[in-house]
Amino acid sequence: MSPIRSILAVVLLAAFVVPPGPVAAAAAVTPGPVCDHQPVANVTAPAGAVTVDAAVPGDLYRKSQESPPGTTFWLPPGTHKLAADPFGQVIPKDGNVYLGAPGAVLDGQGINRAAFTQQAKDVVIRGLTIQNFVAPQDQGVVNHDSGEHWIIENTTVQNNKGAGIMAGARQELRHSCLRNNGQYGMNAYRSDSTITALIVEGNEIVGNNTDDWETRSPGCGCSGGIKFWVVDKADVRGNWIHHNHGAGLWADTDNNDFLIEHNLIEDNDAEALFYEISYNLVFRDNVLRRNSLVAGKRRADKGDNFPVASVYLSESGGEPRVPGRTYLVDIYDNTFEDNWSGITAWENADRFCNSPANTSINTCTKLVADRTQCSAPGIASPPLYDDCRWKTQLVMVHDNTFRFDPARVGCTNGNCGKMALLSNWGTYPSWSPYQGKVIQDAITHDQDNYWYSNAYYGPWKFVAGDTSRILTAEQWQSTPWNQDNCASFDGVMPHC
């Protein structure tokens, strides 16, 4: 690294890594089995609770309707059913609490679309198993209408169509099992983009997207363990996220201020984390194993050399003008083991606000209120030239351990084991000011993206600028790329 770039890196780290104070560290939650390991609780009805009769279909619905807000309902062991109608459901009132005894199951019978609906606030669900509901695509079973501040704890949501859970503002999902749901374990989406302050802690999120939505609807971007859309502030910690048929975690479109820490993310068919056209992320102290092996092999078998990653940053970066606990994408103190590749930081030169190439239709960056402003001739000049782009900028990748053995990954053609910082040659639309290598140069040289102080084990390759430029570690560290100052390779300590 040149002296000027070294000074710049130090200045940036001082200014951005801790702005204005460190992101608070919460008590660590150790990820591990939750499914079939729920605590024994709610064995008897608490004082004042309304007992639901499992032998009477629809009893839970009727008693919810007849009782005042703030009522506690106790579901004894057994299979509880709703009316045998697609729209048989439970409509909670503000502050209702639903407690399931061990063995209490709310079963949708393959008939009911949703279990808990409408927009009551402060609803609590604990100890239930909720299964066999048939929510339509992009809809959910629990909190179907994204009510505010629902607390879902020690609950199993499994074998449903659509999303097991929808999210509302200030929702807390803790120590729950989201297993084998047809589309998502949880879909954090509201049409009015008002979801904020999510907590996802200590859960097991496994086997979701059983209906293989990316094959059924190519390019839909509608699958995975959890999908986040326009969420402002989320804490995702201490979860075991594994064997999902797609990405484990996918944040898509104007998400901001995510803290993802202390998770075990492994054996997902696609990315452990896909962070797309979003802002301001701390990703720390996670363990990532064997992610993207299915997606990577599928792409490589087609002769596609794009670096399929375990952490994929797509048009996402830090932005000081968007308030958050950081204004970086800060990735540190993680362990990566035998994923298809490492981290890919990518920016599509043709994807920007108001571009026909933007698949998130009718959305714009958080810096431009009216997307129609992002058009010729104004987009060719500041501030729109910068503000109409979701920039992959202010990305810091440091103090991570990357281990890779191609034999264990099952990679035979060498199209794996990559670390990448790149863009495409801009071509579209005709009025785009980002044509040619403009964005390739920007992402690699001008947008303050730095790898440093990482430890590598195995035959890693590095991609810079475009997919065709494969670098050795020495080239990656040298001019003009100047990346990974103070990195070690196969245990050889760096000189820095």
From TrEMBL:
Protein name: Right handed beta helix region
Residue intervals of the Right handed beta helix domain: 143-292
Domain of life per record: Bacteria
Keywords linked to the UniProt accession: Signal
SUPFAM superfamilies, per database record: Pectin lyase-like
InterPro entries referenced in this protein's UniProt entry, alphabetically: Beta_helix, PbH1, Pectin_lyas_fold, Pectin_lyase_fold/virulence
Record carries keyword Metal-binding: no
Keyword Signal included in the entry's annotation: yes
Pfam families, A to Z: Beta_helix
Signal peptide: 1-25
